[in-house]
Amino acid sequence: MGLSWVLALTQTTVFGNFILKAKAKDGAKDPYDKPFYHKFASILRTLIRRKTLTLGSMVVLFVASLIIMGTMPQNFFPSLDKPYFRADVFYPDGYSINDVVKEMKSVEEHLAKQPEVKKVSITFGSTPLRYYLASTSVGPKPNFANVLIELTDSKYTKEYEEDFDAYMKANYPNAITRTSLFKLSPAVDAAIEIGFIGPDVDTLVALTNQALEIMHRNPDLINVRNSWGNKIPVWKPIYSPERAQPLGVSRQGMAQSIQIGTTGMTLGEYRQGDQVLPILLKDNTVDSFRINDLRTLPVFGTGNETTSLEQVVSEFNFQYRFSNVKDYNRQIVMMAQCDPRRGVNAIAAFNEVWPLVQKEIKVPEGYTMKYFGEQESQVESNESLAKNLPLTFFLMFVTLLFLFRTYRKPTVILLMLPLIFIGIVLGLVLLGKSFDFFSILGLLGLIGMNIKNAIVLVEQIDLEAKTGKKPLDAVVSATTSRIIPVAMASGTTILGMLPLLFDAMFGGMAATIMGGLLVASALTLFVLPVAYCAIQRIKG
């Protein structure tokens, strides 16, 4: 912007002197003595005479635009226009990875038969290495599989992602499948997450179950679950020093024997290309799923003899436990999670659930309830953007004070800024776009464009007033002379945004700038002169 300012003052004037040649007769003729400009001046004088009605109408339109924006779909980060999508498949906790592999093999065979599918990559137990910047990591989890699907064309992505999600829900109902298109923001564990933080597990489970019950009542929500998963059976042999040490069996020796009889004890690693395979020592004669076989599991001591596991323990403890307990700021947290049904906006669904949770759930003392998920990411990003906005507007006001050396004219200019929301809402609604993160960036740029047009008009009014014209005539004459510059500056910017309108990422930003700038230009020509006359107390 700084360089463009320098070029505008130097190169534009130089090239203008060479290219633009004024004719002698042009100076004798008023370029604004035309029916169009006369009609515009007549309309403007009518609006100035009816200041209260004009400005009141703008306030009503502004309030209406805010109300409409509150009902519009909001998507914090748009999806990328890529021929890929991913699916995270979660089976119940305790599910064997061998069973996961077996079921996902049949899924792979189904995908291979689809003509739209080009490639399929399935990773078991965890997500693969980061294959794009915003990908997230899951695992290690034996009950998890990640499916990465590449299609022949990006035009099939959204449709086939929906078809694959429906296929998984119909054929594998015991698994939770979360499909997602590629976005610039990392995919969260769930679109809606409401967490409870505190010291006692049972209390957290009770609070989370209440939130889950509220989520189940909403027909627009699916994949309702908690963040810890289900409880799994845990069989724990209690080591007895009194019985084990006389037999030469240490606690470590007992643990290694249990590993050999169940999952296998790692002895080393075998590297083959880019793969690292563990070398396991395992007793294949032991059925690790039979409790009686585990009781008689051979345990090696320091001597040459072996003994059974039940001879070196005091008892076998069997219970159900959560295997995936999480913490937040060094405190235990359990979340009620869900996703919106396809076609339902996540933010709108959250705005339905969150008030009910706050109203119906009484959080005990010492416990905290807060939201996570997409809402937390959105709030954090918006706060980081809004943190410096007061300072920004203050510096804008100070700059305008130095320019005009009066409080009234900067006030007129800044009062026009909220009204650009009228154009933003109009552009988003007519063009079918949602208000996302890039729309916010477009809004910030739109503020600068609107201030530029307003400064040009107010400065022209001052120049017209210095020629000796009456205040009202100076306002009308200055505004008439600014029609073409304002329209051309706004029109070229709007046309420049047109290619971005069809882009999946920047479409919302383009619609924001196009709609906002179109209405802002009209406000500059019709409403700003009225506000100027009202604040400067110029009678119509």
UniProtKB/TrEMBL annotation:
Pfam families cross-referenced by the UniProt entry: ACR_tran
Keywords in alphabetical order: Membrane, Transmembrane, Transmembrane helix
Entry's transmembrane regions: 53-72, 385-404, 411-431, 437-458, 479-502, 508-535
Superkingdom of source: Bacteria
InterPro entries: AcrB_DN_DC_subdom, Acrflvin-R
A GO molecular-function annotation: xenobiotic transmembrane transporter activity
Any one annotated GO CC term: plasma membrane
Keyword Membrane attributed: yes
Gene3D superfamilies from the UniProt entry: Multidrug efflux transporter AcrB pore domain (3.30.70.1440), Multidrug efflux transporter AcrB TolC docking domain, DN and DC subdomains (3.30.2090.10), Multidrug efflux transporter AcrB transmembrane domain (1.20.1640.10)
Protein name: AcrB/AcrD/AcrF family protein
Source organism: Bacteroides ovatus
